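Dig into my protein:

:::
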Amino acid sequence: MIEPRTRFDLVSRGIGRVTGGVVLWLIGGVLYLAQPSAAAGMLLFGTCLLALGGWEIAKGRMAAQRSVGCPGCGTRNDVLSQVETFACYQCGKPLRLPPA
């Protein structure tokens, strides 16, 4: 798995889980009309995905970050505070940062 470098990297996983939870709820709702007992597990799993995704979104939005300037092109890059290496988003130059 790729190490998250930005807040978006953290939040996007949560968005994917929330989307999966919504899809399970939609399918479970349709299945509930035909067979209520069969839909219970799907609705429960969808609820768990929604909760986990919401938690990951909140955690990602509150993550500490720092702004680093690229010496090559001057672009400001916002990265998570624990990131030590990354490539500049504009020019792709690899950057090594001191620990925060």
About this structure: The chain has a mean pLDDT of 89. The longest helix spans residues 7-34.
